[in-house]
Amino acid sequence: MRSVFDWKIGARSLKLGKRTLVMGVVNVTPNSFSDGGKYLAPDRAVEYSLQLIAEGADIIDIGGESTRPGSAVPDLGEAATRQELERVLPVIAKVKNKQPNAVISIDTYKSEVARQAAAAGAEIVNDVSGFSWDPEMAKSLAALKCGAILMHTRGRPSQWSGLEPVSDIVMLVKRELRKLLDSALLAGVKRERLALDPGFGFGKRLEENYPLLKCFQDFHELRYPLVAGVSRKSFIGRALARNGEDASLPDRLYGTLAAETLAVMKGAHIIRTHAVAACTDAVRVADIMS
User: Fold this and answer.
1) Which of 39, 120, 141, 193 could hold 92 in an S-S bridge, CB 3.0 to 4.6 Å?
2) How do residues 99-109 score in pLDDT, each as one tens digit?
3) Does residue 132 have a pLDDT over 80?
4) Are residues 40 and 30 in contact, defined by beta-carbon separation less than 8 angstroms?
5) Can you give the pTM of this predicted structure?
6) Is pLDDT above 90 for 73?
7) Does 35 score more than 80 pLDDT?
8) Which pLDDT score, from 0 to 100, does residue 69 have?
9) Where are the domains of the chain?
10) Looking at domain 5-289, does it have CATH number 3.20.20.20?
11) Which residues are within 8 A (CB) of 207 and not within 5 positions of it... i.e. 6 or more apart?
12) What sign does the CA torsion over 56, 61, 64, 69 have?
């Protein structure tokens, strides 16, 4: 039985643990690994966000910069920040205009993007770097008083292919999450506004993701809400490989649903997914069995 939390996200809170919440992914980028720029145009991104809400998404996670393996991040420069803002702000504003009660998360590691996105209506900041790539992020989150997802990442995307294997990836991720949590709390971020994500695929070798999922329940020891983002990840493609070829992105749906169901059974509070309609059905059944 997973713990129940009142996750504070700005002026309201989300009840976590009674049922699994579904976070739908909207990539407003030209080079996302999952959709390759399909929703780069703001109107397409808004339309897709509203579609995901209709399909059952509890949270819409909007991102304006790809952090795929090999990408040149972090980039805190003015040009990169301006470009990210130009992509995400119109989408956030229009979604909130059409669906005022929609819960919007901004997927960013930049404090300036977090601040402006919050002003536009975002109530959650989802930072893949665990607030570590931008030295101002934790202080900004403390001031914004929004919800925040602290995710674990090993190294930077350009380094991932060369990372050495880890003997106990679960222990390493737990230890490093504790350190990141301590830093966030010292900066003034309140614990009731935090959720944790072990960061499947982010600086983990393919074979290291399986024990992370198998032992996902161990992260409850940290006593925070847990987010799982396994959707379409490379380790699922490898598990479904045929004739020496990893499964393509479209062919990873059923494997994704299996992994998401397992994450729910092991206590995930939020599932971050690209396939909202299918995931919503899967987690409803998994919740009954959990």
Assistant:
1) 120
2) 999 999 999 99
3) yes
4) yes
5) 0.96
6) no
7) no
8) 82
9) 5-289
10) yes
11) 165, 235
12) negative
Confidence of residue 288 (pLDDT cuts 50, 70, 90): very high
pLDDT above 80 (res 1): no
Q: Write out the catalytic residue numbers.
A: 233, 272
Give the whole-angstrom CA distance, residue 109 versus residue 122: 14
Residues with Cβ within 8 Å of residue 267, at least 6 apart in sequence: 2, 216, 217, 220, 226, 290
**Which strands form 227-228's sheet, in the order they lie side by side?**
194-197, 147-151, 124-127, 104-107, 59-63, 21-27, 270-273, 227-228
Which amino acid is located at 245 in the chain?
E
Q: What angle, rounded to 10 degrees, do the helices at 111-120 and 78-98 form?
A: 20
* Distance from C-alpha of 97 to C-alpha of 266, rounded to nearest angstrom: 36
Closest CA to 204 of 157, 168, 143, 154: 154
Q: Omega into 74 within 30° of 0, i.e. cis?
A: yes
Residues forming beta bridges with residue 238, ordered by sequence position: none
Which of 57-71, 82-96, 158-172 is modeled with the greatest confidence? 82-96
Mean pLDDT of 65-70: 86
Contact 154, 202 (CB under 8 A): yes
Mean pLDDT, range 70-82, rounded to an integer: 91
